[in-house]
Amino acid sequence: MKSIYFLGECMVELRVLDGATMGQSYAGDVYNSAVYLKRCFTDIATSIVTAIGQDKLSDKMLSCFKNENINTQFVFRHNSKVPGLYLIDTDAQGERSFTYWRSDAAARKIVDFLDDDVITQLGAGDMLFFSGISLAVIEESAREQFWIRLEQLKAAGVKVVFDPNYRARLWQSEDQAKQQFERALRFSDVTLPGVEDLTVLYGIDSAQQVIDFCQSFGIAEIVVKNGPESVITFVQGQLTAHHITPVTNVVDTTSAGDAFNGVYLGARLSGRSISDAVQLAATAAGTVIQHPGAIAPRDEFKKVMLA
Ligand code: ADP
Hints:
Strand content: 15-25%
Shape: globular
Bound molecules: adenosine-5'-diphosphate
């Protein structure tokens, strides 16, 4: 059985429904990707590597992972911290705003839990995914240790996959983010960047420039997402543009990239070709953006696999 780890943060999501009523769920880039991968590829062992608290919301978050058939063996429980939280509000014009409380989240402590035993266990897996957001939330004082642990996993044969998702407010400076992203890219066997994420940091504004940039790190498999535009891949010296069908009924683009990442990696782990994997991933992402919120209804994904 193939296996993949998603390392990072899952948060408590609060959504203002009307006046004083709020809906509560769970979301976060790595969690979203894990959910979509597992829904489409049930035979891939899919784990989240994160830290949560001992509180009731953490209990429910854990149940939520289990309900999605995600392996929780590497979900660690911090003694005093609790999960990060964010609130989505929508104004009269339909514009969404996001407010975050995550600066002291349990997930920031994940590296403390990656001891030698855990690394040995993780070393048996096939692939580890993390993102620019995963990197940003790791405490600054723990980052060196994170790189040591990643190197050990890579040496054990785990393929490293990085999506350089950039969230300016999570970093002290652009230089700090660039330095960490470049380190991640040097480790990566696969990268799944979006064009927009590299625009602010590097002034890159086309898929071709993203390919050139990523190639300079010697990455074997580069997959560039660009909203409704073609997905561009560069693998074994071959540059390919994969046409995708633009969605006209876009409801909410939250987690389009996450769905794409999860389904693409699931397809690749299942032995699908690059072009099959891109088409399945684009179909999944195109489905997600026709529904509100990060996690679309489960039944929609049966259609993705039949597409
Ligand atoms: P992110 O969510 O990281 O910003 P993108 O906006 O680049 O990512 O979208 C990720 C993927 O979602 C795209 O590669 C594409 O497959 C799909 N997608 C996004 N927007 C559209 C759209 N309007 N029509 C069809 N597919 C889309």
